Please model this.
Amino acid sequence: MYKFILRRLAMLVPVLLGVSLIVFTIMDLTPGDPVEMYLGDNYTPEAHAAMTQELGLDRPFFVRYIHYIGNVVQGDFGISYSTKQPVSAEIEARFPSTIILAISALIFAIALGIPLGTISAAKQYSAIDSVSMFAALIGVSMPNFWLGLMLILILAANLGWFPSANFDGFKSLVLPAITLSASSLAIITRMTRSSMLETIRQDYIRTARAKGVKEFKVIIKHALRNAMIPIITVSGLQFGFAIGGAVLVETVFSWPGIGRLLVETIKLKDTPVVLAIVLVMATMFTIINLVTDILYAYFDPRIRAQYKMKKV
Model:
């Protein structure tokens, strides 16, 4: 298991290098002059030339890229062109807000999606099955920015139940978390139902029922545990997508996270901040996939047996 974890962590290096090179290239080809933005009202041709040399923007593309990667390895993400502050400080200030939003959305999606999917499978073709699958279809199809605007219009502007923007306590978290979780909730519900339907048709489930085991115990202890592998996969992926999807949701709700910061800095062509945020998101996504693989061993004894056989 330790070797497996080390191999997966080693794979993180080429992934991050590839992501950084792509984003670095895109930002370099985008129109706009970051030096002019950096100087602002102090712009003069002389100051522009001096700042271009100071920031290293007069050097060839690959020289700048290798220099940037060398600094990142040492923990230096550079200085923001727009705020003139260290990039790491800006991300540290905003990253917790994004994590809180993504975790809240995932908890809501799992807490509601797994029970709904389980009940739908246990009562296939019933009214609750039809309603939950129809709601899941709407959740998958609905753009989260449109849902966010509708929630602001109805629950914030008209009814005044929740604040419509910024981060100020638990109530301000409700609408963004619901908006961000809508698609994940629908996907987890549908995957749980599909996996449970496949599991409850297995012979060992019929055997448990024939032995007189209570239906609730059959569904929860025997069927749900063995149906968890695809559900874990989807849930892990949805957490990664939630971090990425936070870009739109944070913009709609003026949430002070790195997703909103990413949108703002792309407009300003603030390359150091954009690169740092993308690298952080890619790292999080890879780590989440690693944790998902480790959870497989907990829920599936066959995987644990494979590791023991390899060890022997």
